[in-house]
Amino acid sequence: MKVAAVLLATLAVGGCAINPYAQPPISGHLQRSDDVGDCARLLRAMDEAVEAAGVRDAGAPRVPGFPYLRVERFTAGLGEAAAALDGAAFAAWSELMAQADRRARAAELANAGLQQQAAAVDACRYALAVADGREFALLQSSARVPDDYSTALRALGLYPLTRLAFAAGIAEWQRATRDSFAAPLEALPQAGQLKRYAAAALPPEIDLPQRSAALLVPGPARRQLTAWALRHAPSLEIDTAGDADRIGALHWLGDAAPSIDVDPAEPVAYLRTAYTHFAGRVRLQLVYTFWFPARPPAHAFDILAGRLDALIWRVTLDEQGEPLVYDSIHACGCYHLFFPTAAVAARPQPASLDEGMFAPQAAPPLAPGERIRLRVASRTHYLQRVSAGPAAEAADLSYALRDERGLLTLRWPAGGTRSAYDAAGFVPGSERAERWLFWPSGIASAGQMRQWGRHATAFVGRRHFDEAGLLDRYFELRAKGAAAD
After folding, report:
1. pLDDT tens digits for range 383-423
2. How would you classify the pairing of strands 259-263 and 268-278?
3. Is the distance from CB of 333 to CB of 455 less than 8 angstroms?
4. Closest among 146, 147, 144, 150 to 10, alpha carbons compared
5. Distance of alpha carbon 125 from alpha carbon 43, whole angstroms
6. Cα–Cα distances in angstroms (integers) from residue 202 to residues 227, 231, 251, in the given order
7. Taking CA 210 as the corner, what is the angle to CA 411 and CA 118, rounded to the nearest 5 degrees?
8. How is 224-249 classified by DSSP, letter by letter?
9. Which of 99, 163, 167, 184 makes a 20 to 30 Å CA pair with 320?
């Protein structure tokens, strides 16, 4: 079994094993004897130390040839039109990648005990960017995010045949989910007590692009964004049969062999801001993640059960902060559900085995003073209903909104900090037995909890939760005043 695990892991990540220092322009800089060469060598030394410590951040890959920049799928989408950008817009695009590297390196250096080098690395990032300022075409071609599907695994697993079984299983899950959403609330099975959670009215920390990137990523001021983050934070109604059904904060626990655990005594939602392209504009997204201690087994052979579970709820907003589309996954990338508002219409989809847009329910309209309420099942933590309720309704518990970036530098029991994610972007200890059946889909360690940017959401076809054009694939914006179907 260990040999098989190593083989599958090697095949799964082999396409990402790119040395960013082996390509120009950085490969040439390493040979220089001036300040630019010193900076290139410092950067490489820091990366080697981070690799040796095993604390590489997998959220956004370094750009080959430009290892002081990191690219996310949204940013890569902006770069696809970079040929039409003027100098200021191109500089803003590069700055987005520099910001991504700055955030990732701050966590990496802290986790490796090298935080005192952060200022020197920041200065070198600027020096290298100036030196490479004319490399427009090379940067455009290099700033790409490899997808999270392994073609090698699919070939080894006879994907053209095995996808038929995957498609049948997905169709059955969709049928059961539709039935659940169609049932009256009072008819939903209940294993324990319904516990209501509401967001605490405390201003969260929010990650905003710097002003230098505002040319490409316009958005509200921090005060307005904070108000939207509180307004759109959903209420939860969780069927609670035990501690496994209680949300909480992630911590490293244990001195000898630390492991990630969830503390239900500290209810939180981890918040991140994201951006996407939809209907010709850049759209702000608010992403709320709720962590559970486990998904308990339903029976002795439950391959979906395991330690840790998380429900992710995303809201895509228009310019006025009104919702356009809601969607949700679990932190494994599984169970992707869409909840469109009346502001959008679904596009016709071609007949295909590939997983398409699955919307078991339209989003309810929100009257003034109302917020979204999510009904969550016991044990599986599946969404069962999306409804609207008074924002001020009584709750059993409140949850704090916490910056998701904090998960990159959690306190380590032996001293210092460590990320909640390993160097491949997985949450250690959250593996599922289903990975031994689902690897022919091309997804490494299917069912395991993973980091933002690493969520493949389709067993049949290819789709990622953070795809820049995901909503354009499935929806179009209705004209103002147009009635919903």
Report:
1. 999 999 999 889 999 999 999 999 999 999 999 999 999 99
2. unpaired
3. yes
4. 150
5. 8
6. 10, 11, 22
7. 45
8. HHHHHHHHHPPEEEEEESSGGGS-BE
9. 99
Look at residues 287, 273, 278 and name the one whose alpha carbon lies nearest to residue 343: 278
| Residues 6 or more apart whose Cβ sits within 8 Å of residue 275 | 74, 217, 282, 283, 284, 285
- In angstroms, the CA 15 to CA 337 distance is 29
The string of pLDDT tens digits covering residues 108-123 is: 999 999 999 999 999 9
Closest CA to 271 of 254, 250, 295, 288: 288
pTM, whole model, 2 decimals?
A: 0.95
How buried is 211 (Cβ within 10 angstroms: 0-12 exposed, 13-18 middle, 19+ buried)? exposed
Is the peptide bond preceding residue 340 cis, with omega within 30 degrees of 0? Answer: no
Listed residue (5, 11, 7) closest to 442, CA to CA: 11
Query: Both tokens of residue 34?
Result: 């001036």
Residue with tokens 């518990």: 397
Distance between CA atoms of 444 and 203, rounded to whole angstroms?
A: 37
How far apart CA 364 and CA 374 sit, in angstroms, is 11
Q: What is the DSSP string of 371-438?
A: EEEEEE-TTT--EEEEEEEETT---SEEEEEEEGGGGGGEEPTTSSEE-SS-TTSB-TT---TTHHHH
Q: How many CA atoms lie within 13 A of 158 on its CB side?
A: 5
Q: Compute how many other C-beta atoms are within 10 angstroms of the C-beta atom of residue 361.
A: 20
Token pair 């917020």 is at which residue? 371
Is residue 218 a contact partner of residue 255, using CB atoms and an 8 Å limit?
no
Name the nearest CA neighbour of 282 among 337, 233, 223, 218. 218
**DSSP three-state, residue 96:** helix
Distance (Å, whole) CA 396 – CA 417: 33
- State the 10-residue block means of pLDDT for the chain, 485 residues long: 47 62 96 97 98 96 97 89 70 91 97 97 96 90 94 96 97 96 94 96 78 74 91 97 98 92 97 94 95 97 97 97 98 98 95 94 95 98 97 93 96 96 97 97 97 97 96 93 63
| Per-position DSSP letters for 174-228, written without gaps between them | HHHHHHHHHS-GGGS--SSEEEEEEE-S-PPP-----GGGTTTS----HHHHHHH
